[in-house]
Write a structure and sequence with these properties.
Blueprint (H helix, E strand, L loop, with lengths): L1 H30 L2 H8 L3 H8 L2 H31 L6 H18 L1 H14 L5 H25 L5 H19 L3 H7 L10 H16 L24
Helix pairs in contact: 1-2, 1-4, 1-6, 2-3, 4-5, 4-7, 5-6, 5-10, 6-8, 8-10
Length: about 240
């Protein structure tokens, strides 16, 4: 009896997590409701609150289920690359593939569920909610520090501040690209034949774009600010 109850409980939690993943992806955190999630999971509203307590806790559980695994895999891949390099700096392409390529491969491997989570991550990274920003900061803290350090070593000629800016732009480009291809359809008038789950076509193009941005020439130094007014325009004292 205990084994049956445990299995039923595990199945209910899994169904709620699966449903929540899809609802959060489609509606965002603020637009999602526990009632809608429970309905999609085929359980009553009380079950959602029983297993997770609140929408905030449920969202955290959705992130932890895959995002934590993803970031641990990113660290494992980076550890493996650095061990093989035996102290030498990694190539920028290796670092980007380890960080962004691991995300894309995970989504492809897990099929539709992986693609749903991929789009959820794309949307979540642009969510304004303070709770989400705090949750993501904690989850990404270690992995981002490791990858920034690897990029600093790989590109010693590029100022660290510039690398941080470029990493920020790469995260933004990736978030936008994986959140959906509606804009691609709009600007191409459907000529690409791309579909929302066409990651095999998206992945190499995105990786090439990111690497190009990382290797781009440094921006020109900003011009020195001009002084306010000049001597000739100043009023002479009577």
């Amino acid at each position: 009896m205990t084994e049956t109850v445990t299995a039923d409980t595990r199945d209910t939690r899994q169904r709620i997590l699966d449903a929540a993943e899809g609802v959060f992806m489609a509606c965002g955190y603020d637009g999602a409701s526990m009632r809608q999630i429970a309905g999609d999971a085929g359980v009553n509203l009380a079950a959602g609150h029983y297993h997770f307590g609140s929408k905030e806790a449920l969202f955290q559980a959705v992130l932890n289920r895959r995002l934590h695994v993803l970031n641990q895999e990113r660290l494992r891949v980076l550890d493996e690359l650095e061990a093989k390099a035996a102290g030498a700096p990694l190539k920028p392409s290796q670092i980007l593939d380890a960080f962004f390529g691991t995300l894309l491969r995970m989504a492809i491997t897990h099929g539709p569920r992986g693609q749903t989570f991929l789009r959820l991550i794309g949307r979540t990274l642009t969510e304004p909610s303070e709770f989400i920003r705090t949750a993501l900061s904690k989850e990404f803290a270690d992995v981002l520090e490791r990858y920034k350090a690897a990029l600093f070593r790989a590109l010693p000629e590029v100022p660290k501040e510039e690398i941080v800016w470029r990493f920020h732009f790469m995260l933004g480009a990736t978030s936008y690209a994986i959140a959906g291809i509606d804009t691609l359809r709009l600007i191409t008038d459907w000529q690409t034949g791309a579909t929302d789950d066409d990651l095999e076509r998206l992945a190499p193009r995105l990786m090439s774009f990111l690497l190009g941005g990382l290797r781009a020439p440094l921006p020109a130094a900003p011009a020195a600010p001009q002084p306010r007014g000049n001597v000739r325009n100043r009023r002479k004292k009577p």
